[in-house]
Amino acid sequence: MKNTYINCLLLLILLGWSKSGSLLAQDISIKIGFQDSIHSEILRENRKLLIHLPVDYHSSGQSYPVLYLLDGSESGLFNAISDLRKLYDLAPEMVIVAIRNTDRSRDMMPVVAKGYPGPPRAEDFLSFIEKELIPSIEKTYRTNGQRILKGQSLSGLFTLYALLTKPTLFEAYIGHSAGWFEESNAYFLDLSEKAFQKPGDFEGRKIFMANSLNDPYDADRVIHKQLADFSELIKSRLGERISYKYVTYADYGHVPYPGFYDGVRFIFESEETRPAAESDESAVKKLVESFLTAVGNGDLEAIEPMFLPRATIGGVSFREGKWNTFTTTIEDYLSSKNENPSRFTEPVSNYTIHISEGQLAFVKADAILYREGKAQSHNMDYFTLLKENGTWKFLSAAYTAKPIIIK
């Protein structure tokens, strides 16, 4: 492997204006890593790499985790280093290996899709990573065997492919704008079914997936819907074997910027520091999901014991150009739903949960409501819960619902 140093140039304004009105500035060169390359017999080409080593790598004698960045570039490497520095008190220093692209569509696609006629060679690219790149990195540098794979957009699709075909290759997976195309749905569902027949292969994996609800490349939210369904599938099939989180962002376009920071935080956040909070959080989340499932199925008998007596339900829906509100008690709400309740599903993509003293919980749930498989509205659900005799119950439930208009 042959390497040369790379620099990131930052223009910093140091002293302001001089007497003549000219701006005094200085170019500061900051070393973020070096270029390297490896010849691949599998791909039959040389692959260029950008490699970053921890600041104290040469003096510490320590071994480090390795972060493998797909779509490797100087800017991507710099952003990853910047986010990791912000998480210095949580995430360890890492060796970062950014893999530059040669033929992105060929390498990232495991199957032919619209706009990607192939031939797809994701299997070969993953084989290159497994059999050539990783052994070379772990022979050359002091690594501790912990590997993280991060991809975005098309390489986010590849990250999911790697998870389903080689779950033991990496300890953690981060996917930005992850998901697959509509015509690839059957392929990935079949791949998932085969993968989940060996649940033990996923033991201890940490998986963080993120999408944007304002992604111009997923305007009809088909990819979001498929990943929300996949999220429910992976959690139901693998359960406590894995740590899994799917997050959506409302205020970002394609490849939401906070996704990598949030993903690393999720991977390294210590569960040992807050065991009671995690236990309560899990119970609260389970109750919310049970309620949404019961409401969607019209299972009124299951709903009633979830609420405290005289609990309230309210909502605000945007219809015919204006916001319409309602408030009622749980008793009146259930009575009104007795006749021909409509069926729907409401998968939650992101939770915000706050537990106070283990007795009071506040929940914000970001969800899309679907009827007959079609996205109908973007719902923001809010719940207040109390613990009664050791059991969480709803004190109030409220929501906003805004129609999704497919153009």
UniProtKB/TrEMBL annotation:
<dbReference type="InterPro" id="IPR052558">
    <property type="entry name" value="Siderophore_Hydrolase_D"/>
</dbReference>
<dbReference type="Pfam" id="PF00756">
    <property type="entry name" value="Esterase"/>
</dbReference>
<dbReference type="InterPro" id="IPR039437">
    <property type="entry name" value="FrzH/put_lumazine-bd"/>
</dbReference>
<dbReference type="Pfam" id="PF12893">
    <property type="entry name" value="Lumazine_bd_2"/>
</dbReference>
<dbReference type="InterPro" id="IPR029058">
    <property type="entry name" value="AB_hydrolase_fold"/>
</dbReference>
<comment type="similarity">
    <text>Belongs to the esterase D family.</text>
</comment>
<dbReference type="GO" id="GO:0016787">
    <property type="term" value="F:hydrolase activity"/>
</dbReference>
<keyword id="KW-0378">Hydrolase</keyword>
<dbReference type="InterPro" id="IPR032710">
    <property type="entry name" value="NTF2-like_dom_sf"/>
</dbReference>
<dbReference type="InterPro" id="IPR000801">
    <property type="entry name" value="Esterase-like"/>
</dbReference>
<protein>
    <submittedName>
        <fullName>Alpha/beta hydrolase-fold protein</fullName>
    </submittedName>
</protein>
